[in-house]
Amino acid sequence: MKTYLVTGGAGFIGSNFVLYMLKKYDDIRIVNLDKLTYAGNLENLKSVEKDPRHIFVQADICDRQAVSALFEQYDVDVVINFAAESHVDRSIKNPEIFVETNVGGTVNMLQCAKNAWAEGEGFKAGKKYLQVSTDEVYGSLGETGYFTESTPLCPHSPYSASKASADMFVMAFHDTYGLPVNITRCSNNYGPYQFPEKLIPLMINNAKTRKPLPVYGDGMNVRDWLYVEDHCKAIDMVAQAGRDGEVYNVGGHNERPNIFIVKKIISALADRVDPAIDETLIKYVEDRKGHDRRYGIDPQKIRDELGWTPETTFEVGIEKTIDWYLANVEWMERVTSGAYMDYYREMYQNR
Ligand code: NAD
Ligand code: DAU
């Protein structure tokens, strides 16, 4: 039985990954380490609450003792490091926690893996450390071209700078100590359980409650959207068969300007909820500082080497996602009460 140490497994992508893996494989167990920050939510994992293959541990990836104790207690085969501060706007306001968690936490995870897996001059067989990174480390594209794995790192936000720095430590542990590692760099994810600070769930929630839809700048910044399950599938494949020390970009060639996404959500909600939901809700607001103009992933390497292809088109994925948020009103109400209201006011009231 393979043991995965998944960090950040109560967040958006992490919880989708835990559910995906437990559904797909009988013969694994997942130790899920999560600090439960504002973005972590055990409600996402309700369906596996009683599953003995899922062991939840509330802890901080920066905590040497807690993490090394888990390596000692469970014979960890694979680490999947999702845990991070993940929101660009928050990083612009408070960069320090991004360095602490995303850089310091990653280095701590690497050190713990290196110590636990050491054997003779090298490492025990069959071990793998996978860092879940992002296309944002490459910076911004012009109107043409795509990010490949050899595109130079050129991060612009404190968030992407912290992720790029973490990636460099991952490669440094590979090059210096021979730690078996992979890095995945995926484009924007969407789907169930995404915290409504991010574009798609925020717009669904605001439109449903007839609140203004805050579009940054001219709304023409482009993101490359991928349904979260397709990202989970890619991570699973890289963890199993990725070549040691390699980076794999993940994306489905699904680039859309932000305003297209917002209008799509408006028309879907007008059909399903209330025809009065219309484009008059759109409010163009002050742009994000240092706003990257365009992201676009070239996924040829993961496609050619590992046979990964996305299964969910944007047309299907966005409908499934809207259906999920409409069917999970209580989830949305719980995550948008309390501290979320303060965050929302701070972020949007003077924009
Ligand atoms: P998220 O913010 O929804 O979840 C982050 C999780 O990490 C939460 O459960 C939180 O409690 C946990 N966490 C935060 N700090 C921690 C700490 N110090 N110790 C332990 N747990 C901690 O994030 P997400 O959108 O699911 O992103 C997951 C990972 O994927 C991140 O590393 C992010 O950089 C990367 N990524 C995200 C996207 C995207 O579109 N969301 C795309 C590519 C890559
Ligand atoms: O590309 C991968 C990255 O995607 C991940 O690494 C990050 O963790 C994840 O948060 C996401 O970053 P973005 O900044 O692209 O996502 P966000 O949902 O915050 O914004 C998407 C686009 O929408 C971006 O161009 C900013 C814009 N936007 C966002 C919000 C929240 C708006 O116009 N209005 C908004 O209110």
Automatic annotation (TrEMBL):
Protein family: Belongs to the NAD(P)-dependent epimerase/dehydratase family. dTDP-glucose dehydratase subfamily.
Specify the NAD(P)-binding domain's residue ranges. Answer: 5-321
EC numbers, comma separated = 4.2.1.46
Cofactors per UniProt?
NAD(+)
Q: What is this protein's record name? A: dTDP-glucose 4,6-dehydratase
Please name the GO terms that the record assigns under molecular function. dTDP-glucose 4,6-dehydratase activity
Which taxonomic lineage does the organism of this UniProt entry have?
A: Bacteria, Bacillati, Bacillota, Clostridia, Eubacteriales
What are the protein's UniProt keywords?
A: Lyase, NAD
Q: Which reaction does it catalyse?
A: dTDP-alpha-D-glucose = dTDP-4-dehydro-6-deoxy-alpha-D-glucose + H2O
State any GO BP term from the record: nucleotide-sugar metabolic process
Question: What superkingdom heads the lineage?
Answer: Bacteria
CDD domains found in the cross-reference section: dTDP_GD_SDR_e (cd05246)
NCBIfam families, A to Z: dTDP_gluc_dehyt
Q: Show the Pfam families listed in the entry.
A: GDP_Man_Dehyd
Matches recorded under InterPro entries = dTDP_Gluc_deHydtase, NAD(P)-bd_dom, NAD(P)-bd_dom_sf
